Amino acid sequence: MKGTTNILIVGVGGQGILLAGDLLARAAMSAGFDVKKSEVHGMAQRGGSVNSQIRFGEKVHSPLIPQGETDILLSFERLEPLRWLNLCGRQTRAIVSDQIIHSMTTGTGAEKYPDKVEDELAACFGSLQLVPALDIAREIGNLRVVNILLLGLAARHMPFERELWKKVIEERLPKKTLEINLKAFDYGFSMAL
Q1: CATH number of 4-106+113-190
Q2: pTM of the entire structure?
Q3: Which of 4, 5, 7, 91 is the least crowded, having the fewest Cβ atoms under 10 Å away?
Q4: Which among 123, 44, 109 is positioned nearest to 77, based on CA atoms?
Q5: How far apart are alpha carbons 6 and 82 in whole angstroms?
Q6: How many CA atoms lie within 13 A of 158 on its CB side?
Q7: What is the pLDDT of residues 48-106, one digit of tens each?
């Protein structure tokens, strides 16, 4: 593989964005790639916007994705991708949870959550997969596995074997949550287009 692959993971504080980014970076390193990662989580504990940028390839010189060069955008909330359009382009494959998380302003009614976000997303990305991730996680048995479910879905579009992903998850996650997280990863991996 030549060049650099750019993955942008976005969402709201508390959704497991940083863990998903860490697992992705570990998978890329385990596969022998040079990896750089950048995270922004300033107001994460208060429900603020969070992002993790992961870049991997033969040789990566910067942790920051150049403008318009995101290959895969993985979003844990449906409005968040619109905040990051400057890093994306028509070539970006967008995998987006259809979950709505209200900010302080939309939750109090000071602002209105935008209508027809899915139409805007479809207009911005050449490939969009809107996923009922929260509903699927509920079916699986734990709402906290949305991040691993979505990571499994995105994993199908990366050059790492399924077993490598599982090994990384087993090494990084606590034993008591391993079974449900592996189940979520497998579910996501099986539903990729």
Answers
A1: 3.40.920.10
A2: 0.92
A3: 91
A4: 44
A5: 17
A6: 32
A7: 788 999 999 999 999 999 999 999 999 999 999 999 999 999 999 999 999 988 766 66
